[in-house]
Amino acid sequence: MNTSDILQQLPYSKPFLFVDDIVSINENGSEGTFTFDENLDFYKGHFKNNPITPGVILIETMAQIGLVCLGIYLCEGTAIKNIAFTSSEVEFLKPVYPNEKISVVSEKIYYRFGKLKCKVKMFNEAKELVCMGTLAGIIV
Amino acid sequence: MNREEIIEKLKPIVEPFVNDEEAFANLTDKTNFITDLNINSANLVDIILDVEDAFSIVIDNESMEKMTDIENTIAIIQTKQAEK
User: Fold this and answer.
1) FRET pair for A50, CA 20 to 30 Å: which of A32, B55, B73, B77?
2) Is B19 on the interface with A (CB under 8 A)?
């Protein structure tokens, strides 16, 4: 399964797709990138006259690249009906501003009984660690 | 391993995921992980992986689906240990 197949199988679309490219993927992990377009709707309100990417959106981005892309890869072409986000424990170290390009690196902890748990890190273009944590999702 | 030995080893594995402390304090064979202990069903996977390590066994999909209460969990651990 190649990276364009995976991107095509992602169950998201704009304005809630937070994956541009998959840089690398194998059975142990995934790496991908996303650029936060300054016109994304949430910047109008987070914060007033001071746009900063919300932490929940950073978590979603980590989950889409680190869990969902990897999960699709691990299912090897089997159609996935429904997925659910089951847990996240994330620390935030730096803000992400509009038009920043980030990369997400995910490392599989386990994939058993339909549940995928990963250690996920996000870096900015200066290669600084933006946020990191442990995320898990399940196929339902 | 007998029932008591298994429960002794099982309790610290389950405890971090318990959301009903009272039901956990009054644990019986019939205690159900989800309906009694209010454990998030996704966390059952973590419990089962810890059970595999603690008892040096491998749990297959079919057994996993049966591991919903204390009684069945003890039975499966005993069966898997006997198979070794």
Assistant:
1) A32
2) no
